[in-house]
Structures are given as C-alpha cells and as structure tokens.
Amino acid sequence: MPGPMGRGPASERAKDFKGTIKKLVIYIAHERIALIVAIACAIGSVVFNVMGPKVLGQATTELFNGISAKIMGTGSIDFGKIGTILATLLCLYITAAALNFVQGWLMTGITQRVCYRMRKEIIEKIDRMPLSYFETNSVGDVLSRVTNDVDTLGQSLNQSVTQLITSVTQIIGVTVMMLSVSVVLAGVTFLTIPVSLILVVIVVRSSQRYFRQQQALLGRVDGIIEESFSGQNVIKVFNREQRAVADFDVDNARLYDSGWRSQFFSGLMQPIMNFVANLAYVAVVSIGAFLAVAGTINLGDIQAFMQYVRNFTQPITQLSQVSNMLQMLSAAAERVFEFLDEDEESADAVTPELPRCRGEVTFDHVRFGYVPNKTIIHDFSCKVQPGQTVAIVGPTGAGKTTLMKLLMRFYDVNAGSISVDGVDLRDYARDDLRKNFAMVLQDTWLFKGSILENIRYGREDASDDEVHAAARAALADHFIRTLPGGYDFELNEDASNVSQGQKQLLTIARAFIADRPILILDEATSNVDTRTEERIQRAMDALMQGRTSFVIAHRLSTIRNADVILVLRDGDIVESGTHDELLAAGGFYAELYNSQFAEGPAEE
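Request: output the structure for the sequence above.
Response:
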C-alpha cells in the first residue's frame, strides 16, 4: 500500500527499525494515558463489532424457526424475541461506533500533539545548533525533517497504531467467534490463510519495489522542475529549452512507468483478498449446507459465519498495510531523532554585569581551524580601539570572514583568546555578546513582508518615526517613498522586487536602527554597480561614525579612509597600517591594490 507521497528519505527504510520504534515509544510516553484509553476503545469497538454477526444470526435462526413452525402449524413467529435480539444488536453497533469515535478523537489528538512537540523541539534545536552544522548540511534536508518527516510520522503513527491493534484484535476475536459457531467451518476458513499470506507477500514485495523507485524518481523530477523554474534565464540564453524538456521527459517517463506499476500491484491487493474470501464463502456455504441438513448447525450460524469470513480476511490485508506504514514511520522518526540528537553549541556562560560595550576588541594569539589538523588562522594578534575603523583585506581563503565568525562566537577559538572591553568572549552569554554587534553582509537577507517590518527587524520596539529616521540615515528614504505604498511596500520571498543596491540600503537601515557599538561590514558593496556602490559607501560611512567597525572588502578603493588596514595572508597578518603607509611600503597590499588599478597610477 502506498503511504504519504512525501519526497525524500522518509520513504526509505530505517537503519535501526527496532531501536527507532523503542525511542519513539519512549518519546510518546507522556501520552500513555490517552494512548492506553485509545487502545482500549479500539479493542472494545472491535469486540462489540465481532459479536454482532452471531447476535444477528440468532435473529435469523429465530425468524427461520418461526416461519417453519407457522408453516407446520405448530407455532408462530415470536416478533418480541426477534425485536429484543435486534435491539441488542443495535446497542452493540452503537457502542462500537461510539468507542471507535472516541478512539479516533484520542489518536488524532495524540499524533498532532506529538507532531507539535517535535516541530517545536526541532525549531528550538536549530537555535542551539552550531553554525558548522548549517555549513555542512543542506537547507532542504533540514526543511524536509521539519515538514515531510514529521508529517509522515504523524500520519503513519495515527493509522498504524490503530490498524495494528484493531487488526490483531479482529483476527483473534473472529477466530474465537468462528470456533464457537462451528469448528468444522472454522477449519475450512483457516485453510485460506496460507493462500492469502502467499499472495499478499508477493504483491507487497512487488509494489514496495516500485514505490521506492517512484519516490526516488519523484525527487529527481521535482529537482528538474525546480532547476528549470529558477534557471529559465540561463536556459533561454543558451537555447537549451529542448534539451531541458528532453531531460525531463526521460525521468518523467520512468516515473510514469514505476507509478503505474506500483499502483497496479497495490490495486491488486483488494481483488485478490476478495477472491480468497469468495472461495471461503463457497466452501462455507457448501459445507454449511450439508451440516444444516444434518442438523448440526443452524441457518443463522451459517449467515453469521459468512460475515465472519469477510471480517477474517480484511484484517490480514490491513496488517500488510501496517507493515508498510511502520517502515515509513520508523524511517521518518529516525531522521527526526538524528537531528534532535545532533551536538549543540557548548554551554553558555553567565555574562557579568557590564555597562554598554565601548567597542574595544583584542585578538590575542588566536589560532583556529574548522577541522582538526587543518589550521586556517595560525597566530593572529590585534588590538582595536573603540570607534576605530579596521579594514581586513587579503586573497580569498586568507581567513577574513573566519575572523568575523570567531568575533561573533559562531565558533570558539582553538587557542588564544578574543576579548571585548577586556572580557573574554567565552565569558559572555552568546545572546548578550551579539547584542553588541550589527552586521551588513554581501548576501542581503530580507524576509517576505513590508519594508517597515524588515527595517524594524533590527529593533522590535522601534517606532515608525525611528524607522523613517534610520532609512533617511541610510539614504534609503527616497527610493522607499517612490515604491507603491512606500514603507508598506511588500517584499516578496527573495526580495527580488527591489534592486540589489536597494536591498543593501535596507540592511544598512536595519543596522542603523539596531544602534550597536560594534559593526561588521562583509563585502557589502561587492554585488552593485559603481554608482550604487558610491551611495552605499556614503551610507556605510554614516553608519560607522562613533562605532568600532570591521570592514572586509575586495575592492580596496572602498577602504582608503580606514584607521588601520590589516593585510591577511594564509591566516596571519603580513602587513598593517593606513592606506598611504601600505602603498608607500610597496609590499603585498600595494601588489593587491595595483592589480585592481593596473591601468592607472596606484596613488592619487
């Protein structure tokens, strides 16, 4: 049977089925009272339903005997007794329906609370994860765990627990009732079990293979569609439309083939079970007729037995479905638990009572590498005075951005120390440390919402007037007012309805309103044209006034006015000084600068 059509690893088998199921049972232990009541209701519902056919058979027997007596002239139909039997039957079915309703209500609540708790824990876990996790794992994989895997777990848990309990109970209950009616007819029915199991195993194995293929191909097809949608400009520029369609058609045809095969084999399940049930019906009716003629069984018992045959084959089919759902359940749960068990950031310190940060930053013999035995920053030392503008330059891979990650304590140093106002970063709580920093990055991050909300993200309690003032300071007010709705203009999901330069000005306005004493500018002008760069540079110059600022830049023309320029090479400071001093020295900085202005003089 197919499960939820979620793409991704949730459709695969779990690596540790038993261990994952055990962990899931422990996880939902706080729901044990509701779960026990739900299971009891499910069992009770099945028991009352199973009793129904035998009671109905009594009414049939009573009616048949009454009609026979009336024909023979020896008696009449006892409608009162028949009415009592039917009333009893009605009570049984009403009770079964009520218990089934309670069970469904409880199980739905249990599964949704489990899903709610898992999503909440995943989101809380994300905030405690080290940055290294997100740099080594795809965003799509984490999203899949939050949405796809949790949804699959919830659906499978709701269906599998109920079906497993009801199917097993129904098989046991029906078996007992059939034996109480007729051992001979029960034996005939039991002979169909091997046939049913063999056919079910064949169908399930065949359908599972194609369902796995279908899930894998579905992911590939979705990937091609996503790439084609996001890369339409490139596809059209290189005239690759036909090739893109051809690539899609290949996987789409394979998806069609595996899709119809999986659905076909899955669809065979019910007809096969009906065929086996019909064989049992024929056998029960044929043998039951001989037994009835011999007087060893009542007519109503035969009718009840025919209903039991149907009730006996149905749970066998359900159990095969449950096995699939349990596999999906364990696979989804395993991925969720893997994420929840990931290593978290080291324990936070308790920040000492300190006044507002002045902005003095000291790097003392800092040594760091992302992985052991691969050091990026070897021995970095530097002292930055409050209010200074420090430019950090160097070739790609020199360790510029890594230094800023260490300063924000996204990573902790391997050796040495970094301190702010004389306090080691590791003695700060991370939240308290980061309250002293504002960042403007090369990759602007704006969310779907109004411009007002995006700027206010820097400080939640900022008033509208303060937002407008921050936008004016960032030289963004003019372009904002030209947009439809002004500050209420809605940015789309990737903020593609404003230009790159406008996005950068908005992030500068956000940094203005945050009003933090230390500022980090990481390649903030690298993705814009020269005219826009000049406007952004003026906005950044205003933002840096009175703040300790760290500026990472490849365009060396933008950092001429820095108080000190640190030149990094292979994780070490090879030169330091002002722009003019470094050019006069004729060293590595001068080489970098002249390479950007090869057609003109290096100095003004």
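The chain has a mean pLDDT of 79.
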